[in-house]
């Protein structure tokens, strides 16, 4: 009578291989889930910061000096006038090392009495294709001199 030990050993090796494969797939799913969770958390923080900036700019009716003082932002020039706020990885206003930038740029709405600004948030540590977390426009009413024109 032949021993069934080699067959039993082969069966156990196949089962071990199946379990190892299942564990590797589960681990890969957990890693992907963690990446998605972190990306969602970054986007949520960016939305909160951008909404605060939008409300401040609307409240100040596009006055960038007042908005900069309330936001803790710096004015920047270049092609267009705007504000820039740097944040560290924990979304505190950065003094040295920055990870995120929030920008506010005034734009012409093309309508008298309507102010417009564009607000954006970038993750400077991300790849270029994923660096911009969000971008949107904010508008507010401005006083129009009815005597003009």
Brief characterization of the structure:
With 149 residues, the protein is of the alpha+beta class. It has helices spanning 5-59, 64-71; strands spanning 74-76, 82-87, 100-107, 114-123, 132-141.
What's the count of strands?
5
User: Given the C-alpha coordinates, what overall shape results?
Assistant: rod-shaped
Helix content: 40-55%
Distance between termini?
111 Å
Count of DSSP helices?
2
Rg: 27 Å
SSE-based structural type: alpha+beta
- Biggest β-sheet, characterized? 5 strands, antiparallel
Could you explain the architecture of this structure?
The protein is α+β, with helices and mostly antiparallel strands. The protein has helices at 5-59, 64-71, and strands at 74-76, 82-87, 100-107, 114-123, 132-141. The chain has a 5-stranded antiparallel beta sheet, with helices on one face. It is rod-shaped, with a radius of gyration of 27 Å. The relative contact order is 0.12. The mean pLDDT is 88.
């Amino acid at each position: 009578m032949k021993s069934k030990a080699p067959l039993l050993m082969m069966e156990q090796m196949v089962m071990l291989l199946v379990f190892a494969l299942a564990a590797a797939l589960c681990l890969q799913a957990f890693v992907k889930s963690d990446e998605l969770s972190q990306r969602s958390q970054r986007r949520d923080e960016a939305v909160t910061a951008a909404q605060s900036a939008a409300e401040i700019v609307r409240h100040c009716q596009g006055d960038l000096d007042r908005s900069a003082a309330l936001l803790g932002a710096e004015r920047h020039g270049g092609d267009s006038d705007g504000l820039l706020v740097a944040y560290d990885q924990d979304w505190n206003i950065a003094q040295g090392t920055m990870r995120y930038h929030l920008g506010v740029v005034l734009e012409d709405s093309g309508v008298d009495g309507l102010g417009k600004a564009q607000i954006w948030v970038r993750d400077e540590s991300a790849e270029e294709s994923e660096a911009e977390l969000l971008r949107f426009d904010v508008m507010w009413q401005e006083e129009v001199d009815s005597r003009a024109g």
